[in-house]
Amino acid sequence: MAVSFVVAFLALAPAHAVQAQTAEPAAEAHALDETADFWREVRQPGYQRSRVLLRHGIRMLLRLREERRPHVRAAILEGALERFQRAHLLVPEDAEVLYELARATALYERPRRGQPAERRDEEAITLFERLRALDPDLHAEQVGFELGILYTRVGRYEEAAAEYRRALRYVYDEDFAAITHSNLAEVRMMAGALEDAVHHYERAIA
Question: Is residue 5 predicted with pLDDT exceeding 90?
């Protein structure tokens, strides 16, 4: 009986030890995160509040995936933009906040009766360029892609092509690369560079 008890205890002990070892690093990591956030708040008053606003804004953008009504989409985007703008005012040098603000601004579209939809393309371009100056590596492929779309909308095709090429330097996902090549082919065709357009169309379907 005593031998059985000892064997059972020894069999269970490693599992408890593993659980304790797993829990301890997690607790330590959480404590380190809290300490880092505390000192970040000391250096940047308003940082914690900016995180809350950032999370709220991102959740609102996620709702757009299910919403198809134009006016409701515009209202959701305005709510997200308001939160990102407030977060940006609190931490103006925070690149992640600036990225989300630029992204939401690029998505903005409000329908107008008998007129083209209201967009904020030039404002979004300015925000993305400011982000790139602040942190060139943050979401570099997505920033280039978004700027390619924005420059296309405002008819600046050479700049759009340059941005798509920049995005391709950072892209690792094959599907995203194919879409980028396709968009690049379109803007090259708009610019009259038909041979280059064909080349990128071929890359898109390769």
Answer: no
Distance between CA 104 and CA 81 in Å, rounded?
Answer: 6
pLDDT, one tens digit per residue, over 23-59 is 566 556 555 555 656 556 666 678 999 999 999 999 9
Token representation of residue 59: 């959740």
DSSP characters over 124-191: HHHHHHHHHHH-TTTTHHHHHHHHHHHHHHTT-HHHHHHHHHHHHHH---HHHHHHHHHHHHHHHHHT
Q: How many helices (H) and strands (E) does the chain have?
A: 9, 2
Separation of alpha carbons 71 and 108, rounded Å: 11
Question: Which residues fall within 8 angstroms of residue 47, CB to CB, at 6 or more apart?
Answer: 37, 40, 41, 90, 91, 94
Instruction: Return d(Cα 102, Cα 108) in angstroms, integer.
Output: 10
CA distance 180 to 201: 10
Give the burial string for 19-35 (b: 16+ CB within 10 Å, else e): eeeeeeeeeeeeeeeee
- Cα–Cα distance, 104 to 167 (Å, whole number): 19
- Give the mean pLDDT of 118-133: 97
> For the CA atoms of the chain, what is the radius of gyration?
25
Residue 119 in 3-state DSSP? Answer: strand
